[in-house]
Amino acid sequence: MKKKFVLTLALVLMVAVTLSAATPLEVSGSFKAGYTFTFGSAKTPAKAEGDKDNKATINAAFAGDFWSLEIGGNLQYGKDKALTAATAKIFLDKALAEEGVDMGDVSLTLHVGTDVGKGAPSVLADKNEYRKGKGVGMKKADNFGLTIGYAKLVEVYFSMFPNKDFPMVVGAKVTPLDGVSVALGFSNDYTAATNKAFAVSAKADVKALADLDFDLAVTGEYLMDIDAETSLINADVTGGYAGATLWVAYNTDLTTHKLAAKAAYKTVVEGFTLSAGVKFSSDDLSDIANKYEVGIDAGASYKLGGVTYALDLAYGVKAEKFTVKPSAAISF
Asked: How is residue 101 annotated by DSSP?
């Protein structure tokens, strides 16, 4: 049994070495360990929530002339443990060109593996993550998809799973000129409770359109759960100049209106990265006097010997909650 194991291991190593010698191999990732100490009204640490801050991400990418393969994902140690994901892209246009079929400005890419079809294209900034987990996509994870592109103007995406229900997601992104883009998406496998959903989003990069010296962009999205007959509207305005950033995010389901805004600044002094910000948010503008929060945060980090040591502080004014987050991170 031991001999068989050694022979099997040797075979695996031989195949791995052969594969890495035949195709370029890039390995990247990060490791972060930290803790979150929360001080409430009692002025004592309420909890050290280390599980949320401890995670490792390792990604390996193999690339051939007509394909690429990415292996990796979040290897979070603690309460949640994610399986390693694998996704492949097969460049059909390049393979056809090798056989004498020139596609011109048209590109064809086949997607196979984990999380294919999980989301249709969108250009929403979503700075406050109002849309997180609600994008138009398939709830089924392991599918195959196809992207058809024309130059940098049009990109059409389609993914499906071949069973009797034929779950699918289809989307398109159009960039008619630099600074303007529009995306559409539809799925008949939206959630476990409802099936069909539709979304349209748009982006205007004002900096590119007006040739400004500072960052300024506006994005918006309308998402409709067709079966549930509910809608979401999201809008974001983002800007920045010389280390200072400002964004405003708005969300509504046509019943409740939400708003969030944040101003922040980041700079480097003697090797230390320093940051500070103020954020205002309200989950119901009709009762803003009671349903609001003001958050103040500050942070400092320093890289020493390949390790980034950081200390982040945050205070919720209305909640009277103070958090301290020390951490150490390695990137490779």
From this structure: -
